[in-house]
Write a structure and sequence with these properties.
elongated, 90 residues, 77% helix, 5 helices, mainly alpha
Length: 90
């Protein structure tokens, strides 16, 4: 009976350990993507994308969108990521 009371007061210790483990997990793909976005080629593509978004956002009526710039940026980032991510795959 005493053990059950302590469990009620303190909670299940296994649940706490599982929660701590989940908080520590970081997706390595996201980390690599962030690092690749900082490279010179990706930074240049991001600047073009941001300039396009600013230009399109400043106009009230336009048919222009930034699809090409977005694809260029994603291509540059994914190209960088592809060289690094496969070393992490087991």
């Amino acid at each position: 009976m005493v053990f059950e009371e302590k469990m009620i007061q303190n909670g299940d210790p296994e649940e706490e350990e599982e929660e701590e483990e989940e908080e520590e997990m970081v997706d390595p793909l996201e980390t690599i993507r962030q690092k690749c976005e900082e490279t010179e080629h990706c930074a240049h593509a991001r600047e073009k994308l941001e300039a396009c978004e600013t230009r399109v956002g400043s106009r009230s009526e336009t048919t222009e969108d930034c699809t090409e710039e977005l694809f260029d940026f994603l291509h540059a980032r994914d190209h960088c990521v592809s060289h690094k991510v496969f070393h992490l795959v087991k």
